[in-house]
Design a protein that fits this description.
9-stranded mixed beta sheet; globular; 30% helix; alpha/beta
Length: 382
């Protein structure tokens, strides 16, 4: 005789837990989707999204648009209004519990009367670091932590690195042929990769605070270094040049679309500096211009993510100094040859294959006709 399964059946309990977990994951993915609307605009703050849910329906949502403006939870609670009482709040990063430029979000959630908060990841900032969660629990609110944590951490890897290391995350992007060339013997490089790969690079640029190139890139490629999308974030374009032996006319000196910063050494080519400044280009002198010093300077400016799109000589220097942590390598199925054709990374002084830097946490994907390898350089141990 068949009987109806009772409410305590292990299979039903398991299914209920699975459905609940799936719903929580979908709501957290919604938070991440909202957070991405502010890509490249929130530094030194993180990207954060929030949704308020009641009876299985979203009644409020929001994201943090930029530093100094309200946090994601505040926008979501405003949209929910009085309906937030008894609701569940989903937020991709632990609500803050301190007074900065804005009041604590933990207190806003408590005042709104939510009964539960689902958090994607704990905030690594020592000013928060579990304090927001503790405050919510002390107020009698149920808190669940770690839903879609890997995705939440990935979205804010630059912010996390900045907090932990007092440096922005350095990302080295390059495109090369199958035989390891970034240009021909003559220096011609347009285009190594497919249109699809270039579109992806524009997306990467949108998410960064600054793009760094050296003087050779300006002289040979005359790049735009923009996101090429109407209304999208254009990061600060940065040129490193010790001597300012640069062309008088360059696309980077046109600052109507995107800002440009030239970093040089003290006293270099004063007349050229004046010319740049007259065109709206920011010029900063350093006593010693190195990738290491530049990343320290970027930290002081509040940056989280810095994209290096430089040539091989500067890339080797940046890697050797620890200015780069992440690599985005686009590989096109082309062979160009050439004994003197440039390669992505200049000399690192290695003489044995055992000295090679092996990337970690590698991801491989196909973009158009190209292959994209993403990985992280091994971190130096103190």
């Amino acid at each position: 005789m068949l009987t109806e399964p009772n409410s305590h059946s292990p299979s039903l309990v398991s299914s209920a837990i699975s459905l609940k977990s799936d719903f929580d994951s979908r709501m957290m993915q919604k938070c991440l989707q909202l957070a991405r609307r502010a890509l490249g605009k929130t530094s030194p703050n993180p990207l954060v999204g929030a949704v308020i849910v009641k009876d299985g329906e979203i009644i409020g949502e929001g994201f943090h648009p930029r530093a100094g403006e309200p946090h994601a939870e505040v926008f979501a609670l405003r949209a929910a209004g009085d309906n937030a009482v008894g609701a569940t709040a989903y937020v991709s990063l632990e609500p803050c519990n301190h007074y900065g430029r804005t009041p604590p979000c933990s207190e806003a959630l408590i005042r709104a009367g939510v009964s539960k908060v689902v958090v994607g990841m704990i905030d690594p900032n020592p000013l928060v670091a579990g304090g927001g969660i503790a405050r919510l629990r002390d107020a009698g609110i149920e808190v669940v932590v770690g839903v879609e944590e890997a995705a939440c951490r990935k979205l804010n890897e630059g912010f996390i690195y900045r907090i932990l290391h007092q440096r922005p995350l350095g990302i080295f992007k390059y495109a090369m042929t199958l035989d390891g060339k970034i240009a021909t013997n003559t220096g011609h490089s347009a285009w190594v990769t497919s249109q699809e790969s270039r579109q992806m690079v524009y997306q990467f640029r949108m998410a960064t605070d600054a793009i760094v190139v050296g003087g050779n890139t300006v002289r040979k490629d005359n790049p735009y270094l923009t996101s090429h999308q109407e209304g999208a974030n254009n990061p600060l374009r940065v040129v490193m040049s010790r001597t300012l032996d640069l062309p008088m006319a360059a696309r980077l000196w046109q600052t109507e679309t995107a800002p440009t910063l030239v970093l040089t050494e003290t006293g270099a080519n004063p007349e050229f500096q004046v010319m740049l400044q007259n065109q709206g280009v920011e010029v900063v002198e350093m006593d010693m211009l190195t990738p290491d010093r530049v990343m320290d300077y970027f930290y002081q400016r509040g940056f989280c993510n810095v994209l290096w799109e430089c040539g091989g000589t500067l890339a080797a220097s940046a890697i050797a100094s620890g200015a780069i942590q992440k690599v985005l390598a686009f590989i096109a199925p082309k062979i160009i040859g050439g004994d003197n054709a440039p390669t992505p990374v200049g000399s690192l002084g290695f003489t044995r294959m055992t000295e090679a830097l092996s990337l970690e946490n590698i991801e491989i994907s196909v973009v158009g006709t190209d292959c994209l390898i993403t990985g992280y350089l091994p971190q130096k141990r103190d």
